[in-house]
Specification:
The protein is mainly beta. The protein contains one helix and eight strands, in the order H-E-E-E-E-E-E-E-E. The strands form two sheets. Strands 1-2-8-3-6 form a five-stranded antiparallel sheet. A hairpin with a 2-residue loop joins strand 4 and strand 5. The protein is globular. This is Cysteine dioxygenase. Belongs to the cysteine dioxygenase family. InterPro entries: CDO_1, RmlC-like_jellyroll, RmlC_Cupin_sf.
């Protein structure tokens, strides 16, 4: 067996307090894809209301908020942006995104199991054009 010389996961041998860095966007994306691959861990939490999306907290791990959102058919959000860093993935159903930027207005359907990064001045709106509910998973850092 080869010793782990990097000391990952160990206390500093000199008694120093090591500062934790927030996860990178790539680490948030990996966490969402891992969660999406294990629907047995979160599917029972999904709630389906016909009048508005339902956001359900899955947990908080290492300063990262995890939640899922169910989107009823025909629902549309207002245009908004995100103050903190957030990633999301559509796991089932249909969602379409409208983005407003300096280049103009664009619209496109979102694809399942593709991670989207939100934050800063990403102004957008979402709509569920499909006949059934859509489900998204999210991971975010506090603003």
């Amino acid at each position: 067996m080869v010793p782990d010389l990097t000391m990952r996961g160990q206390d500093d041998p000199h008694g120093r307090v090591l500062a934790r860095r927030p996860p990178t966007v790539g680490q948030l994306a990996a966490r969402i894809l891992d969660l999406a691959a294990r629907p047995g861990d979160w599917w029972a939490l999904a709630r389906f209301e016909p009048d508005a999306p339902v956001r359900v907290r899955i947990g908080d791990v290492d300063g990262v908020r995890l939640w899922l959102t169910t989107w009823p058919p025909g629902h549309r959000t207002s245009l908004h942006d995100h103050s903190g860093t957030e990633v999301s993935a559509l796991t089932s159903g249909e969602l379409a995104e409208t983005v407003i930027s300096a280049d103009g207005v664009t619209g496109r359907p979102l694809r399942t199991n593709r991670v989207r990064v939100h934050g800063g001045r990403h102004t957008h709106g979402l709509a569920n054009p499909g006949p059934g509910y859509a489900i998204t998973l999210h991971a975010g850092l506090p603003a």
